[in-house]
Amino acid sequence: MSRLAETLANIPLATLSIMIVCCIVYMYQFFVDPPVHHYTMCPRLVIYMSEYYRFITSSLFHGSIMHIGMNMMSTMAIGSSLEKRIGTLAMAITILWGIQLTSSIYTLISWLLYMTIGYEHLMLQHSVGFSGVIFQLAVLEANLSPDRTRSVFGFINVSSKIYPWALLVILQFIMPQISFLGHLSGILIGTMQSHGSLNVFFPSDEYLKGSEQKTSLAFIVRQPSFVSMPEAGTGLGRRREGSAGFFAAVAGSISLFLKNICETLKVMIFGRGAVSNQNIQMGRLGAAWGGNDSVQEEEGWNGLPTIDEETERLTSGSPSDVL
């Protein structure tokens, strides 16, 4: 088996299916070369021209080979991990609803900003790509992950639950041309789904377990890459906190992220401080730095000798000092 075939065989069914769909759509773009702006997400055209098909096409079309390549690699990593935790049927429904809901909230936010403060830029902006759904999946995967912290590009470690928010901010600094609102929409939908605010759109775990036994789905269930739902259920939407819980979760995540950033900047600029460094023993420092400050030694400290002790030893002329 080739390396590519082995990699594809390890991708769960729902994740692999949406990757294939996106690749087929891009092949259509490559060979036919249709005007991409006819398929992008543009809130003005959706609202005033009733081009509702953009809710779906905007997630499946991509702007370049690099664009789809990065999105599909992210989908493979995040989607595979999530699908193995919630099952193929739950993953498929999450993706299908995610495509529509992320586009819907993108349009709603753009319209609200235009109606309230007259900000028209987002209404006229064209966005395309699967990354909004990827951020939705990233939120769900982070909330179900047993890992408490994650590394953001190897620079800083953050809480798993605010990992998508950290990616949102850092990616926007690295690539300012990407759609901030598109990614934010995915995070909002993922957070709402995780906290049960969207349970009306998603079938219950019991229904999904029963569906796996239906003869109409037997062909799909028999596929080697099909993942059955865990006995404990998907774990999604169990915290039925409604809108209040959703907004509290968002506010708490943002607050914790900002607190961690401020703490990091504080340490970078001012250092850890004497209280945080009190476990570091360096002897008397006043003479060495020409000042009177010193670190108090603990009784029985057997570390490096103080400067005074070392000076006295060197001037005593003991044979052991000769090299």
Descriptive keywords:
323 residues; mainly alpha; two-stranded antiparallel ribbon; 16 helices; 2 strands; 60% helix; disordered C terminus
Structural write-up:
Strand 1 and strand 2 form a beta hairpin. The protein has a two-stranded antiparallel sheet with strand order 1-2. By secondary structure, the protein is mostly helical. The N and C termini lie far apart (65 Å). It contains 16 helices and two strands. Helix content is 60%, strand content 2%. The C terminus is likely disordered. Helix 3 packs across helix 6. It is globular, with a radius of gyration of 28 Å.
Rg: 28 Å
String of helices and strands: HHHHHHHHEEHHHHHHHH
Number of helices, counting only DSSP H or I runs of 4 residues or more: 16
Strand content: under 5%
User: Roughly what is the average pLDDT, rounded to an integer?
Assistant: 81
Helical amount: 55-70%
Number of strands: 2
- Terminal-residue CA separation: 65 Å
Strand order of the largest sheet: 1-2
Would you tell me the structural class of the helices and strands?
A: mainly alpha
What profile does the largest beta sheet have? 2 strands, antiparallel
Report the uncertain regions: 239-243, 276-304, 318-323
Shape: globular
